[in-house]
Amino acid sequence: MADIFLNADDSRLVKELTSFGLKYDGAHQYWIIRLALTKSLSIKTPPDQSFDSHRTGGNQFHLRQVTGYGAAPDDNGNEQDFDLAIRAILSSYHEEDLFSDNKKYKNFLNRHICRGLSEFRSGWSRSHDFYGYLYQELVEPVANEKQIAGETSSSRLEQLKEALHELGVSASVKEILRGARLERFLLYLNDVSQYDVLKRGVDKLSFQMGLKNSAPVLSHTSERKVVSLDIPLPKNEQRTISPAPLEQWVGNSEFKIPIWLGQTVSGEDFGFDLAEAPHLLVAGTTGSGKSVCIHSIILSLLSGNSPEKLKLALIDPKQVEFAPYNGIPQLYDSKVVSFIDDADSLLSNLVDEMEERNRLLADVNESNLDVALANGSLDLPRIVLVVEELADLLMQSKELEGYLVRLAQKARSVGIHLVLATQRPDSTILTGLLRSNIPSRICLLVQKSTESKIVIDETGSEKLLGKGDMLIKMSGEQELHRVHGAMITEADRTRIVGRVR
Ligand SMILES: Nc1ncnc2c1ncn2[C@@H]1O[C@H](COP(=O)(O)OP(=O)(O)OP(=O)(O)O)[C@@H](O)[C@H]1O
């Protein structure tokens, strides 16, 4: 006999969420049941009798599906039976012994599930991204609670004021923004000469505040006499950025080629339009989070564009990073390119494609693909070329630089955009001609301040926190954006790529 009963409406909702919410081949309805239980447990007051389900007209589930009751460990020895743990959680939630009263346990479990489903019904609709919804409902509130707890325990403001006083800097704290990995103090300097004093004294300030190895970063803002000082949070208070908002952000964006990367210091989503960039350089030392950042860019491109709208030309001299993208319908030349001869022919094909597109545009009396797409005179996909490690490529064949420079100079108007990544942002790899034609730049942690200058025309990236912490300079903008990139895991890639395939 079954243990958990749903009415007909709830059963329909579970079915709909399984197919249109999870969007995952082989998803089970009981996954939704488990999520509904989690949602209900996130509400502090117990569900009342109004959530008691009628035992007819809908689907039924066994405890084994809902709590794993009696299930043996899987092939890898991972536990699958969480019944005792769930009984303990419900007992403590309801302050009742639900170990000895099986009937009551099932009844409370059933109520929670029905309440969770009722929450899903009122908060989710088919046009919403279910993963994004779950993130907002289940993950973000916990993260925010932790953040507030961290904030109240922070005495950093007092420490900072004292350190500024010791340095002889006369400034007042205008605003504090607390991000996932640092606090940004906006300081109003009483007179501009204080800027040099502060700049020279940043190391001393760090020492005075006991910041150990995590260096503060000082930068200008667009406001007169206001500077920002980014001070890293203690390691145990730093948060990793989840990629959950990626698909929804991209889906809602009005940009032509929306790219989502993560969060700003004030916790807002950060994304940009690659069509406006129009080419991008991503630089960072090994382990800085460059590949993860590139995955965020590729997944944004994949989730926001059908193969008819966008093609991806991928060059991966390392042969591992882009392997998961082999076989996706968006691939230009239908494979990820790793070897130098293939890279040569891919780039030469792209240059030919650029020339051909120019001819096609001339035929319809247009000079720009954006306009031709908007007025319907041409229907061509945009193309994004992504190179995983530029240095590996150019060290094997310097001739390839010629193709890249031609594309960087002229491909924008025909809808071809470049994203070039490198561990080695030095002048041998990034020659003046290539660099000056790639106006938007992402700089992750680099080893030397001179490298930071090459990438974003300013020092500072050598003091970043690593692991996806980045400074971004967009084409035509003066102010830098400090962004914490999302941690894209293999599972995230598999999920999004699986959907695209
Ligand atoms: N945004 C992020 N949030 C949290 N951790 C991250 C983030 N990005 C990267 N990391 C961590 O840093 C590790 C290295 O990241 P990644 O492979 O992207 O570095 P990389 O710069 O490409 O290095 P390499 O050039 O050697 O491949 C990851 O395995 C992950 O543990």
Automatic annotation (TrEMBL):
Binding annotation for ATP: G284, T285, T286, G287, S288, G289, K290, S291
Domain FtsK: 267-453
PROSITE patterns: FTSK
Protein's name in the database: FtsK/SpoIIIE domain-containing protein
InterPro entries, alphabetized: AAA+_ATPase (IPR003593), FtsK/SpoIIIE/SftA (IPR050206), FtsK_dom (IPR002543), P-loop_NTPase (IPR027417)
Summary of the function given for this chain in its UniProt record: Essential cell division protein that coordinates cell division and chromosome segregation. The N-terminus is involved in assembly of the cell-division machinery. The C-terminus functions as a DNA motor that moves dsDNA in an ATP-dependent manner towards the dif recombination site, which is located within the replication terminus region. Translocation stops specifically at Xer-dif sites, where FtsK interacts with the Xer recombinase, allowing activation of chromosome unlinking by recombination. FtsK orienting polar sequences (KOPS) guide the direction of DNA translocation.
Record key words, sorted: ATP-binding, Nucleotide-binding
SUPFAM superfamilies: P-loop containing nucleoside triphosphate hydrolases
